[in-house]
Design brief:
There is one protein chain. The chain is an alpha+beta fold. Among the domains are: 59 residues; 49 residues; 59 residues, Nucleotide Exchange Factor Grpe, Chain A, domain 2 (Roll). 47% of the residues lie in helices and 13% in strands. It has five helices and six strands. A three-stranded antiparallel beta sheet has the order 1-4-5. The N and C termini lie far apart (224 Å).
């Protein structure tokens, strides 16, 4: 039948240029060193590329095998050793803490005992600190008693005066052994650090501000002032002061 294609013939829609392009691609992949084996060949001409199937997803990594019983037992043994070591260190630390605590308690007790002893010694010093001075001063009233007894039995005032002077010297020497010294301010310039003024005395015999009269001597203890000297301080007489009246003449004696 006219116009009907022959049976048994195979007709393709691919042009001759496409076939030649595919052959060239095959030759290039065969000769090239960097081409990957098994890569699909693109037989479609430029502009008519055939769709490329997406790459297959990577295979999942195989799961790690479960640890064996020996490995688990070994890990348990190591943990047991570490636990025993930690417990041993903890016991040692507790022993050190207990020992330190006991030492602190003993130190506090020793401190309290020291405070009590110090307080007791302080009270004893306050009560009996002058015992040595008292023993040194006792001969003085003994000498005074002997002097008074001598004055009652005899009328030798020169001997009494000499005995009193010796007793006074004994008193000063005794005080000197304990660091107590007396000082005189008579005729010296008035010093408020050492002297205590009772009053001012007008006089032209000495410059103003001088000690005109000493009422009580001053004393120091180891160079520290214990009692200031009690004095009278001179000052210049006021101008135009009235002169003392002249004594009245004696009446003539009658013959």
């Amino acid at each position: 039948m006219a116009g009907t294609p022959d049976k048994g013939k195979f007709s393709t829609g691919i042009g001759q240029d496409v076939i030649e392009e595919a052959l060239r691609a095959v030759e290039k992949r065969t000769d090239g060193d960097d081409a990957e084996a098994g890569a699909p060949v693109d037989l479609a001409p430029e502009g008519e590329r055939l769709p490329v199937e997406s790459a297959a997803p990577e295979a999942e990594a195989p799961a790690e095998p479960a640890p064996s019983a020996d490995v688990v037992q070994k890990e348990l043994e190591e943990l047991k050793i570490q636990l025993e070591f930690s417990q041993s260190k903890g016991r040692e630390l507790m022993e050190k803490i207990k020992d330190t605590h006991d030492k602190m308690l003993r130190a506090v007790a020793d401190l309290e005992n020291f405070k009590r002893r110090a307080q007791k010694e302080k009270e004893e010093v306050q009560k009996f600190g002058v015992e040595r001075l008292l023993k040194d001063l006792l001969p003085i009233p003994d000498n005074l008693d002997r002097a008074l007894e001598h004055a009652r039995t005899q009328s030798d005032f020169d001997s009494l005066k000499k005995g009193l002077q010796m007793t006074r010297k004994l008193f000063e020497d005794t005080l000197g052994r304990h660091g107590v010294k007396s000082f005189s301010a008579q005729g010296q310039a008035f010093d408020p650090r050492l002297h205590e003024a009772m009053q001012h005395v007008e006089t032209a015999e000495m410059a103003p501000g001088m000690v005109a009269q000493e009422v009580l001597r001053g004393y120091t203890l180891n160079d520290r002032l214990v009692r200031p000297a009690l004095v009278m301080v001179s000052k210049a007489p006021e101008a135009g002061a009235a002169e003392p009246p002249a004594p009245a003449p004696e009446p003539p004696s009658s013959s």
